[in-house]
Design goal:
The complex is a heterodimer of chains A (284) and B (348). With 284 residues, chain A is mainly α. Helices cover 75% and strands 0% of the residues of chain A. The longest helix of chain A is centred in the C-terminal third of the chain and has 31 residues. The two termini of chain B are 36 Å apart. With 348 residues, chain B is α/β, with parallel strands linked by helices. Classes of the chains: A mainly alpha (284), B alpha/beta (348).
Chain lengths: 284, 348
């Protein structure tokens, strides 16, 4: 071990400060977003099986439900051109995006307990960068998972008439809904700092929102009250965006409106998590 | 000491945490004052829950105090937290290293967040890895590190950007004796770094005695006394005669019979432990025992000791250090929150 001067600390001007003092805050935020996202993606790449395992559930549903409800399509009034598998894929992509991002708060709690978040907060790390990194990581993992489901659906016989563009729009919508629920989960984690709370939120929202959407069955076959809820259910918007985008005749104006709605919601939810983040900082 | 010479200066810090079931909340800091001169290891000694971690959180810009002022390197922590973060290094009670990254990756990210770029980051990381004996483990994931290795990496993380002030919050809690001794050596070496100021919090008397050039004893959110370890012990003139009383002994009777003795200067009774101060401990022992026996009290044991920081603590707080020490809430790395621990303890 070296015994040389470890810290020739200049009492006044640290060399570090010179490097950052002239930097624009926005540029610092971007640079820090880059490095902090890199940290998260590195961890993701090291454990690719975590991503793969997380799609096991939707994949089982894909083939189980795809087979079980194969004939549902024949119900009068179902009004869908294609196989039930074609119908199911956009629903499961939306479900997967919501379900996996709802666990984001767990990572947040882990980082709080481990002291990692406090380490960043006591450093000049950009606060926006810290939040951005979380959102960026969620976007990347949601994209990978959605593409896995798209691929497996294709292998199972599903067809996407909307082509690559349609699939891209479907995946983009899944990212948006992932950001919505990821941000809410992070806010829950930071505010309550309890894993039970996150599990509670998950069980409370996951199945109801899924079955109050057109993921498995057309909304026009639902009772009136369920239809009313479904039309306001953001998860349903994602399903509808995806289904329309990959169909032979996408309704681009409806897709645009729903994407806009999701975007507004995503921004609002990220704002909520930023506010919670601020209150966390005050109550460390 | 003028504030210009101070690396850290806190005045009248008050911090209250809101808690359910307690309307007034819990006061973790209750008018804490400290002045830390530049270029030394300064100890903040106190039992769990005394407010040490809260003090560190306020001084490192993590928590906002309800009132009071704090300056680090002359910079106002409340007004310019961003500037303060540039000049401090923080090694919190909980390791903050990312277990899913390697030691080197952790260090490089830390350096980049402080604005180090290019070859300088790698060079600095390698230097620290070498210094802390982690070169061989540099490419391994941190979750495979032993507790001692993780703690050394934590200190390296705190030093990555060559801070002027380093905060070490309970650096050896949870370490086995061997790793603790190694960590003490590392911390001792930090003192050789010209200009580096270290604020070390600890609840180990021995650690404070051994490492700190000066220290402040913190109890219930305020500093009860401060000085060099020798000064503090020197205030307690002479030796201490420690007598353990039998069960059921009447402490007021003990006090009254011992107070009259010319050999004994000061008597403190905490539970069944009696500490009597004397210029000549060896000569006082037979007198004290005889006096107690005359009053019908047979001492269970007796010892003569040089004053320790434990005695200093007792003198200023009226409690033995071991009694004030909170029970551990979980393991140091576990889910327990040091703030929660501060709070629970303060509420007692």
């Amino acid at each position: 071990m070296a015994t040389a001067q470890l810290n020739p600390a200049p009492s006044g001007a640290a060399p570090v400060r010179a490097a950052q003092s002239g930097a624009v805050p926005v540029a610092v935020a971007l640079v820090h977003t880059w490095y902090l996202t890199g940290r998260k993606l590195h961890a993701l790449v090291r454990q690719p099986w975590v991503l793969a395992f997380s799609v096991v559930q939707p994949v089982i549903w894909l083939f189980l439900f795809g087979q079980l409800f194969r004939r549902v399509i024949d119900i009068p009034g179902f009004a869908f051109h294609g196989t039930y598998l074609d119908y199911l894929v956009p629903g499961l992509i939306a479900m997967n995006a919501m379900s996996n991002n709802m666990w984001a708060g767990m990572t947040m709690i882990e980082e709080i307990e481990r002291g990692t978040l406090n380490r960043f907060l006591a450093s000049p790390a950009s606060r926006i960068g810290i939040m951005n990194a979380t959102v960026a990581e969620q976007a990347v993992s949601t994209t990978v998972q959605s593409l896995i489901i798209v691929g497996l659906g294709l292998a199972g016989g599903a067809r996407y008439h909307g082509g690559v563009g349609g699939v891209a729009v479907m995946v983009a919508a899944s990212i948006l809904v992932g950001v919505v629920f990821g941000a809410l989960s992070n806010a829950t984690g930071m505010m309550l700092r309890s894993r039970e709370a996150i599990i509670g939120v998950y069980t409370f929202f996951m199945l109801p929102l899924m079955f109050l959407s057109s993921a498995f069955i057309q909304t026009q076959l639902m009772p009136g009250w369920m239809q009313a809820i479904a039309s306001r259910n953001p998860l349903n918007w994602v399903v509808q965006i995806g289904r329309s985008a990959v169909s032979a005749t996408p309704d681009w104006s409806a897709i645009g409106v729903r994407c806009g709605g999701l975007l507004v919601l995503a921004v609002a939810c990220v704002a909520v998590s930023v506010v919670t983040f601020r209150s966390y900082q005050k109550n460390v | 000491m003028s504030s210009i010479d101070c690396a850290i200066e806190a005045r009248q810090l008050v911090k209250t945490y809101a808690v359910r079931g307690n309307k007034r909340g819990i006061r973790a800091l209750d008018g804490l004052d400290i002045s830390v001169p530049r270029g030394m290891i300064y100890g903040l000694l106190g039992p769990n829950g005394a407010g040490k971690s809260t003090a560190v959180k306020v001084l490192t810009s993590l928590a906002r105090p309800d009132s009071g002022t704090a300056r680090v390197q002359g910079i106002d922590v409340l007004a310019r937290p961003g500037r303060v973060r540039q000049v401090i290094g923080v090694v919190a009670q909980r390791s903050g290293a990312d277990p899913t990254a390697t030691g080197r990756e952790n260090l490089m990210l830390q350096g980049r967040l402080y604005g180090l770029r290019g070859g300088a980051v790698r060079a600095r990381a390698d230097q620290l890895l070498g210094h802390f004996g982690l070169t061989e483990a540099a490419g391994r994931l941190v979750k495979t590190y032993s507790g001692g290795m993780q703690r050394r990496l934590d200190v390296a993380l705190g030093l990555m950007h060559r801070p002027a002030v380093l905060f070490l919050d309970e650096p050896t809690t949870g370490l086995d004796p061997e790793s603790r001794a190694a960590m003490w050596q590392e911390i001792g070496r930090l003192a050789d770094n010209e200009g580096l100021t270290v604020l070390l919090t600890t609840h180990y008397l021995e650690e404070a005695d051994r490492l700190a050039s000066r220290l402040a004893i913190v109890d219930r959110g305020r500093v009860v006394t401060s000085g060099t370890p020798d000064e503090l012990k020197g205030e307690l003139h002479g030796d201490v005669v420690q007598v353990a009383l039998p069960a059921g002994a009447d402490s007021s009777l003990v006090r009254s019979v011992l107070a009259g003795l010319p050999e004994v200067r000061e008597v403190v009774i905490a539970g069944r432990d009696v500490s009597a101060r004397s210029d000549d401990g060896a000569a006082a022992v037979p007198v004290v025992l005889a006096q107690l026996q005359r009053a019908g009290i047979n001492a269970a044991s007796v010892a003569v000791a040089r004053p320790s920081l434990d005695d200093v603590y007792l003198r200023h707080t009226g409690r033995r250090y071991s009694e004030a020490q909170a029970p551990e809430f979980g393991t140091p790395d576990g889910p327990s929150d040091e703030t929660a621990r501060d709070m629970v303890e303060a509420s007692k």
